[in-house]
Each structure stands twice: as C-alpha cells, then as structure tokens.
C-alpha cells in the first residue's frame, strides 16, 4: 500500500511505498520514498507556462520542447496530440514509425517501462522514435510528476493501476493545454484497443479511440488502413468461417515447464530443409542426431529459426530424412486467401494439401518397407509450443492468382509469397492489391491462429519493381536484418568538428596528456596491402632486420576507439550495427564514412593514430618479445594485393620498403607452415568476384577469386596479431575478455559425407579425431583425373563445420576457447575495428590491459558482455548472408546475357532431382527429374547415392554424387518468389 504524500520545504512532495515481505516465516516491512516534482514540463511549444518554469539540468542544458504548436489535424479539422498505451506500441510499432501518420505523440513513462519489460527490441525502436525530432515523440515522466502520479489502491492489480496512470496523463494534458488563457486549444486523443480501458477513459471525459477509429479519422486514413496489424482489426479481418481447428493447440506454459523439467519435452531452434519445406530439424543436447519434424501438422505453425518446444514421437515412428524435393509452389486451386473453408481437411486436422498428402503417403510406405536403413534413422518429434518467434520484416510479392477483380477495389485478402522459400505464404488485406502486383513489398506477420492454414499479416510499404537493382538490394538488406538507414544527427555530432580537415595533433601538446603515452613510429617503413580500390584501410605492416639478426615486425591497426568513446550515440550505433556489410555494388558502414574512409583509415603519406603490436621474431618466426602500444604512424604506400606481389617478385626492386615486404612474406610462410603443422584447416568456399562496368555499374562478368601469396602474407600476420592480443586481454580480464571460438564438429555432421565418399570414391573418408587428422585426410582426398575434386570436398566439408562465435571468456572453460579451424588455443578479432564492433571492444580492453586508459564498466561486466556478443554474433551472420545474396543476385544478372554450357558437379541426390554446383559462377542449382527424363522410370538408390532414369531421348541414364556433368546454365525468374535464380539443364 502507499501512504499519504508529504510536502517538503524544497517544494517537492514525497510518497512512501510500503512493501511487506515474508522471510523465514517473519514479516519484513520495507518503506521506500518516491519523490514527486511540480516542474516537469509538457514539452509543447504551445504552452508558454511550461517554457517559463523549466530549469537547466546539471550540465546547464534546457529541455527541448518538441510537440508542435500547430499539430496535425483530423479530417474534421481538429488539431490534436496523441497519447498511446502499451499494446498499441507493441502491436503497431511499424505504423508508429510510418512517415504518413503519428506526429506529436505523448508516451507516458508508465508505457515506456512496460514496453521495455515486454519487448526490448520494440523498446529500442521506440527510443529511436523519441530521438527523431521529425516525428515529435516525447516521453512524459508521469511517475515523477505530482499532478499525474497515481497511487495503487488496495486490491487493485498492477495492470489496472498502470491503465489508470496512462488515462491520468491524457486527462492532465487535456486540462493543462486547454485553459482559458490557451492561445490555441489542442485536443488530446487517447488511443487504446482495450475495451475496458477505453470505456473508463470515456467515462472520465477523455476522447478515447481504438487504433482503427483513429486511423479512420485522419485525412489519409483510407491509405493507412492497410498498415493496421491484422490482429488489431478485430471482427471481419479475414473472410470466411475459421471456427474449425486446423492445427493442434500449443501446450500451456505450465505443461511445457513441467515437461522440460521431467525430460519429456525439449527446446531448440527449428531449421527447415532447403529442399523440402515440409521437413525440419531441431537439435537438442539429449540426442546425437537432430530431431526430425515431418509434415505441416507436426511443424505446427512454426517458422524457420523459431525457438520451439518439441515432444518426441514413439520410436516406431522414427524415420530417415526424406530424399524427396518438395517446394511450395505457386497458389493452387486449394488455396483461397479469403476463405479458410477450402483449407479444411478431415483426417489430418485440415492442414494437409494434395501435395503434402502424396508426400506423407510416400514416407509412410518407405517407413514400412524392408529397405529402411537403421543407421540413417533419426528420432522424430512434433512441435507443441513456440518460445520465441523469429518474425521480422519480410519481403515478398503479391501472388497474382490470389488477386481478383473484387480484391482490387476493396480491402479483401490476398497472398504474399515471401522471398525466403523456407517460409509459408502470408495472407494480408489491402485495397491496392492490383497496384502492388509486380512489386517487392514489405509485410509483417501478426498472427497464425490454429484455425488458419496460413499466417495473417499486414502491408508495410513497397520497395519498387521486382528485379530493379534498388528494390532487390533493399530487399536483401531487409531480409537479412541489416540496418542501412543514414546515420542520425546525434551520431554524426560525435565526430570531430574539423571533419575532413582533422590532423593528428602535436605530440607535445600539454592539453592532451594521453598523447604523451603514444609511441612515435613514423620512422618505420609501414605499408598497407588490401583489395584493389579499398578506402577503409584498417591495417598496415612493417618489418625490419634488427642489429642482432632477428626481425622486428609490426601490425598497426586503425585507432578507432580514439574517436568512438563508450556510451556515446556513435558507440551505441556501432554496437547495434555490429559490422559493416559488403555488397557487390555498395558497402553498408558500421561507422560513419568520415571515420572509415578518412579519420581512421591508414591512408599513405599522412599521420594517423594506430594501435600497434610489435614482435621480435627469430628466423623461424618464433616470438622472442611482444609489445602493445598506442602509436602514431605514417604509411609509405597503399598497395593492392597484385601490386604488392608484382613488386616483391620484381628482382629490379631493391628499395627498403620492397625488401621489408619480402621479409614479411618469408616470415608469413613460416607462420602458415606452423599453423598447418598444428592442424589448421584449409577449407574452401565457391567464392566468385563480379566485375561491374565503371560507367553504368552494370554487372559484366564473373570470375573465381584468385589468391596470391600477398593475400596469405596479410592473413597470417592478422591471425598472429589476433592470437597475441587474445592472450593479453585474457590475462587482464579473465571473465570478460572478448574472444572468438570455433567448436569441433560433431561426428554426426560428417556421417553422410563420409558415407558418400566411401560408396562413391572407393573407401575414401575424412578423419575427425582432431583438426590435424581432418586436415591431413582432406589433403589425401584427391582424384588424379580431376584437380577440382579436392576443392569440392573442402567446400562440402566447410558446410559440415560448426559456426565460429564471439564470447566473453567467463562463459567457457579454457579448453573450450579453442579455435578448431585455426588450431589455436585462444583467439579474438583485433585487426578490423572500422568494420567490426568486436574489434572496438578488444581495442578498449587492450588499452586497459596496458594501462593506457581505464576500461569502461560495460566491458568489465559479464552480463553486459553477453548481450554485446549475442548481438554481434547475429549481425556477423546476417552480414555474411547478405553479402552472399548480393553476389547471387548479380551473378543472376550476368547469366541473363551469358547463357552457355558449363561443367558442374553433383553435390546432392534426391529421388526426384539433383543439385549441381557450377564452379564458374559459384552457384548451385536444382535440376528436377521432370526436366531430365521420365518420372515413371526413375529409381533412386539411397545406398549408392545414384539416380537412374530414362532421359528425354529414351536412353537409360544414371547420375550419382560427385559426378562431373555438363549443364546448360541460364538465369530465370522464379514464378513463386520473383527471385532470379540459376536454371540448370542437364546435357
């Protein structure tokens, strides 16, 4: 309960919050004082009273008044501010962010705190809205305002008390801004979808409206209707009778908690098969093999990457993974966007389509046949709950067959086919379905009721025409959750005011004592070696022979943390973005361009701040001494890999800089050999480079990336620096050092590949006893008649590996720090702070470890570090996928004009098709059996991984794993997703 308020001599008032806790059977009374103020302003330009009474804060800054004196009007001409409740923010945040509505919005502190507790990502988006002065959102601290604070009454729930507090804000603003002396009366509209809360607000004289009613009251409400989430538009949202259950209901929270505790239920992440949308897997520690989820009923409305709860099926229902390709096709006759009656089945709960019915029948026949291979059996399960949805903004296109004449003129339902083929189509309502045909559109999924075969969502915005470079690039950035909006003014204000004219200050400047701690290395012969055209140069090197015959080698990294200070807007933006993203035609920077390409870039011929690691090495590249220092350097030259290689190889070049690069090359070879001897892996990926026309920016040709010795030179010394720095920061911060680990792959990951090698390549196999054993066995897997075969196996082995991850050192024991791929016991990322936030944290920790400056608390707190690594792991992974998608898009554009015959390799075999990798383009394509020959004559031998069929010419043909084949390659637009992909035809 809360006692009465007391007035203090300072003018403040205080309430006492009284809590009673029971501890060991004894009642403990706790009294906390809560201070209230009478000088919290309303932040409205229309209120002269508040502007007169406000006082500056401790830094002498006056609060900013944001709310307009001439706010937006309803269609009947009423100027108004808006007060919103928690559920409006949680369910309609993208509508609040829309530039066509929601200006002059008051967010009560009560609402802000509720949003933070219920969804931190949405809370961050709300904070960004508050920071954006254009939208005019303000947080009103009602919990500290004497006029708006409300007590919690006896017997009142917290939710009811909070609803009362929010209504009080709306009521106070209405009376505060509309007095007799108010020059311009401003109406207050309270938006709330809770019927009970709305009723109470109206009884209290507040203009309370639902979100739909408010949108309808705006001049552009007709256009905004499509943007309202489907779960907010209550009755009549989607047509048809949806009273019959299609999917099983999820278990209750109590049943789930009990099941996890007693070991009958398991939690994990769902991964949908790339070639069969009706099959997924969930990996759980209790089983060596992933749990198989087969059929839409067992998948039970879960999306790819959802965190799910699964229940194991009886052992007699365990199965082999399906060897059938099943892609969700275009909208069929049994799909109706407006009526779920057509979706309802009988025996299987109404969810099964004709295509799935055939598939399940085939799987049932296979399970009962005598050919079942016990070694391939996997435990099966069904999804009984979803812990956390992976829902985000999705990009897709409206399916033309779901748009009728009627749909084009009224707000009726249609289907959106998403770009991600692992996801189901989504039903939305829009009046502009015909207008959006042929365009990439952005949607949000709102709900997936158990009585609906498909999820429901709503339209957000359009990106442009399908296949236009701008629309496709923005689509892939949204698909991979890459932040690409311009940096805000708050972020840019953190940069030096001198901008492009900034220069390294005088080292003897008495005003900056930190400068005295820097080591002047401008006499060293430093140079950088990067890809051609690189402007964000974050690493440079030098080497020289010492008088004692040993070598001094230095790695110099751009000192980004000199400019990016902890807890600033610039730092928070870098932490949120996590990494720069490199696309074929552009770069999405983690930090503003001024930093990356100018202030921090180690450009030649200018002084730059750096963080340096300098070793003394002997002839065999053994470390005799290592030093870490903040420094000032002056690069002598910026080489491309090819330029550096030509200079090193040219015997006429005998200058000191060239000789120092030769020393670096010699030592790098020793370092690489040492890593290989220790068991480092030399894996591969089908990487290609797309050449763009310099004038038109059109893609011209594709080539496989060629690696030179200078590529390896730079890589070895970057690895060397990362390992040395990892040891240093771990010694100083054993609980919170930012490190990177790579776990060894489970043997089950290589089971299928090893079986394929054994069957198809005369007993060849990959050893997994250690990384050294794996590396040696990969070296032995060669085909004397095909030099590319070894590369192919390395590519396939890469896909069997675990993903490397960042982690704070206190999260694992030291043996688990090991980086399996590099064969080192400890590792981190230090060498690219311009483009990776991990490196920014490592720079700060290294600066603290050498006593250069104190380490910020956020990098000494284990819980904060765990939040940082969780985000950058996600951002790093998304950036990789976005980069690959960009290459895939542009390779598709190149192939449009280069239809030709190429060599390929079979890398997957199914009973109704094969997957072929084409090294020339670095792409892989699915060739369905129906395009190769007669389906009726096909026979797939799973034990031999070979597919036999009668081809289109009537001849018997067999295609098997690892076969080299000739294919016609062309680029076609997928009818379902609208994405351009490689279409391969077997010769």
UniProtKB/TrEMBL annotation:
Positions of the UniProt region annotated as Disordered: 324-348
Question: Acidic residues compositional bias: what residue ranges?
Answer: 336-346
Q: Which residues does the UniProt record annotate as the domain RNB?
A: 518-852
Q: Which Pfam families match?
A: OB_Dis3, PIN_4, RNB, Rrp44_CSD1, Rrp44_S1
- Transmembrane segments annotated in the record for this chain: none
Pinpoint the PIN domain residues.
80-199
Its GO CC terms are: cytoplasmic exosome (RNase complex); nuclear exosome (RNase complex); nucleolus
Primary residence: cytoplasm
Task: Name what cofactor the protein needs.
Answer: Mg(2+)
Q: Which UniProt keywords apply?
A: Cytoplasm, Endonuclease, Exonuclease, Exosome, Hydrolase, Nuclease, Nucleus, RNA-binding, rRNA processing
Cellular compartment(s): Cytoplasm; Nucleus, Nucleolus
Q: Give the matching SUPFAM superfamilies.
A: Nucleic acid-binding proteins, PIN domain-like
Give one GO term, molecular function aspect: tRNA binding
Stored SMART domains: PINc, RNB
Tell me the GO BP annotations in alphabetical order: exonucleolytic trimming to generate mature 3'-end of 5.8S rRNA from tricistronic rRNA transcript (SSU-rRNA, 5.8S rRNA, LSU-rRNA); mRNA processing; nonfunctional rRNA decay; nuclear mRNA surveillance of mRNA 3'-end processing; nuclear polyadenylation-dependent CUT catabolic process; nuclear polyadenylation-dependent rRNA catabolic process; regulatory ncRNA 3'-end processing; TRAMP-dependent tRNA surveillance pathway
Q: What PANTHER family does the annotation carry?
A: EXOSOME COMPLEX EXONUCLEASE RRP44, RIBONUCLEASE
Tell me the protein family, please.
Belongs to the RNR ribonuclease family.
Q: Protein name, please?
A: Ribosomal RNA-processing protein 44
Q: Which organism does this record belong to?
A: Spathaspora passalidarum (strain NRRL Y-27907 / 11-Y1)
């Amino acid at each position: 309960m809360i006692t009465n308020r007391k007035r203090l001599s300072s003018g403040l008032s205080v309430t006492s919050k009284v809590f009673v806790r029971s501890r060991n059977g004894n009642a403990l009374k706790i009294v906390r004082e809560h201070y209230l103020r009478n000088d919290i302003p309303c932040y409205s330009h229309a209120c002269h009273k508040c502007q007169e009474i406000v006082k500056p804060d401790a830094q002498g800054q006056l609060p900013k008044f944001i709310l307009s004196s001439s706010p937006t009007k309803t269609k009947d001409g009423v100027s108004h501010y808006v007060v919103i409740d928690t559920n409006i923010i949680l369910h309609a945040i993208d509508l609040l962010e829309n530039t066509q509505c929601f200006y002059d919005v008051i967010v009560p502190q009560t609402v802000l705190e509720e949003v933070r507790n219920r969804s931190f990502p949405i809370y961050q988006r709300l904070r960004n809205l508050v920071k954006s002065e254009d939208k005019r959102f303000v947080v009103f601290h009602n919990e500290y305002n004497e006029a708006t604070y409300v007590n919690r009454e006896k017997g009142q729930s917290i939710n009811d008390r909070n609803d009362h507090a929010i209504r009080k804000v709306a009521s106070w603003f209405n009376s505060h801004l509309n007095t007799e002396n108010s020059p311009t009366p401003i109406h207050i509209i309270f938006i709330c979808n809770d019927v009970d809360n709305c009723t109470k607000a109206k009884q209290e004289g507040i203009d309370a409206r639902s979100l739909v009613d408010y949108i309808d009251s705006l001049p552009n409400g007709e256009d905004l209707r499509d943007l309202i989430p489907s779960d907010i538009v209550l009755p009549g949202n989607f047509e048809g009778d949806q009273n019959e259950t299609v999917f099983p209901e999820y278990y209750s929270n109590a049943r789930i908690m009990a099941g996890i505790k007693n070991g009958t239920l398991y939690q994990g992440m769902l991964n949908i098969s790339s070639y069969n949308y009706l099959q997924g897997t969930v990996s759980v520690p209790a089983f060596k093999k992933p749990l198989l989820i087969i059929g839409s009923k067992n998948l039970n409305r879960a999306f790819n990457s959802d965190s799910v709860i699964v229940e194991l099926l009886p052992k007699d229902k365990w199965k082999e993974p399906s060897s059938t390709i099943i892609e969700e096709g275009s909208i069929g006759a049994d799909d109706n966007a407006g009526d779920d009656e057509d979706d309802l089945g009988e025996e299987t709960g109404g969810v099964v389509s004709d295509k799935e019915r055939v598939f399940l029948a085939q799987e049932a026949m296979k399970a009962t046949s005598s050919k079942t291979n016990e070694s391939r059996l996997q435990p099966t399960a069904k999804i009984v709950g979803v812990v956390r949805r992976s829902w985000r903004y999705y990009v897709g296109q409206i399916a033309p067959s779901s748009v009728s004449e009627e749909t084009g003129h009224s707000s009726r339902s249609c289907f959106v086919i998403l770009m991600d083929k692992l996801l189901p189509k989504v039903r939305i309502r829009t009046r502009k379905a015909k207008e959006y045909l042929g365009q990439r559109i952005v949607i949000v999924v709102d709900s997936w009721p158990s009585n609906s075969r498909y999820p429901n969502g709503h339209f957000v915005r359009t990106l442009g025409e399908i296949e236009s470079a701008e629309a496709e690039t923005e689509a892939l950035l949204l698909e991979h959750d890459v932040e690409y909006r311009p940096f805000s003014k708050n972020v840019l204000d953190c940069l030096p005011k001198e901008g492009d004219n900034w220069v390294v200050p005088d080292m003897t400047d008495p005003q900056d004592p930190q400068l005295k701690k820097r080591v002047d290395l401008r006499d060293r012969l430093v140079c950088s070696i990067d890809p051609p055209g690189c402007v964000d140069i974050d690493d440079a090197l030098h080497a020289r022979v010492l008088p004692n015959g040993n070598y001094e080698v230095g790695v110099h990294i751009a000192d980004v943390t000199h400019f990016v200070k902890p807890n600033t807007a610039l730092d928070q933006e870098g932490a949120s973005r996590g990494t720069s993203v490199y696309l074929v035609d552009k770069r999405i920077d983690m930090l503003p361009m001024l930093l990356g390409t100018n202030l921090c870039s180690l450009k030649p011929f200018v002084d730059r701040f750096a963080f340096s690691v300098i070793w003394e090495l002997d002839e065999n590249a053994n470390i005799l001494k290592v030093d870490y220092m903040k420094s000032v350097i002056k690069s002598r030259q910026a080489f491309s890999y090819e330029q550096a290689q030509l200079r090193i190889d040219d015997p006429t070049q005998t200058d000191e800089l060239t000789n120092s690069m030769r020393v670096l090359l010699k030592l790098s070879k020793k370092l690489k050999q040492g890593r290989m001897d220790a068991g480092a892996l030399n894996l591969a990926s089908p990487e290609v480079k797309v050449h763009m026309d310099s004038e038109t920016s059109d893609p011209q040709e594709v080539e496989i990336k060629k690696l030179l010795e200078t590529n390896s030179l730079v890589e070895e010394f970057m690895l060397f620096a990362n390992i040395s720095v990892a040891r240093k920061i771990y010694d100083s911060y054993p609980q919170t050092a930012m490190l990177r680990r790579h776990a060894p792959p489970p043997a089950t990951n290589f089971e299928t590949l090893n079986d394929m090698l054994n069957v198809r390549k005369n007993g060849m196999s990959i050893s997994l006893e250690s990384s050294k054993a794996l590396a040696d066995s990969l070296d032995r897997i060669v085909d004397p008649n095909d030099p590319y075969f070894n590369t192919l196996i390395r590519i396939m082995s890469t896909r069997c590996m675990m993903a490397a991850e960042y982690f704070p050192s206190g999260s694992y024991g030291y043996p688990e720090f090991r980086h399996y791929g590099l064969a080192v016991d400890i590792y981190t990322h230090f060498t690219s702070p311009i483009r990776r936030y991990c490196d920014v944290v490592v720079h700060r920790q290294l600066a603290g470890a050498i006593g250069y400056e104190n380490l910020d608390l956020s990098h000494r707190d284990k819980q904060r570090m765990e939040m940082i690594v969780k985000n950058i792991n996600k951002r790093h992974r998304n950036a990789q996928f976005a980069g690959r998608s960009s290459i895939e898009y542009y390779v598709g554009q190149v192939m449009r004009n280069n239809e030709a015959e190429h060599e390929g390799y079979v890398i997957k075999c199914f009973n109704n098709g094969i997957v072929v990798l084409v090294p020339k383009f670095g792409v892989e394509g699915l060739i369905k059996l129906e395009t190769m020959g007669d389906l009726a004559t096909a026979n797939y031998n799973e034990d031999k991984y070979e597919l036999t069929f009668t081809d289109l010419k009537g001849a018997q043909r067999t295609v098997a794993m690892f076969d080299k084949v000739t294919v016609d390659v062309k680029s076609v637009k997928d009818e379902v997703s609208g994405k351009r992909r490689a279409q391969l035809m077997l010769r």
